[in-house]
Amino acid sequence: MTKKMYGENLEGNLTDLVGRMRRMAYRPGASREVLIPKPGRSAHDAVRDLHRHLYSHRVSTVIDVDLSRYFDSIDQQLLLEMIDKKVGDRRFLRYLCRQFKAGVLRDI
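Below the sequence we write its predicted structure tokens.
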């Protein structure tokens, strides 16, 4: 279902989604990987800002970090235990477990 299709009956779709989540009947499917830029900013802006900073300040070290696999490396059980201590909602924890198993589709 596209965003446009979902939005045509947004109120009904959201009501249905909330109902399925409350009944613990919601099963997330794989989601597309989407980069969400900050309002008024783009990846080009970020590269331009970095370039300006590197050439206008004395920099001795640059670290390149790829966060695309960051959440794959986290101990999910430990994360769930920490969230449980903070939130304490079993339904939310079960939802997170389902999200962990759902996966991500990537355009290659």
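The longest strand covers residues 31-32.
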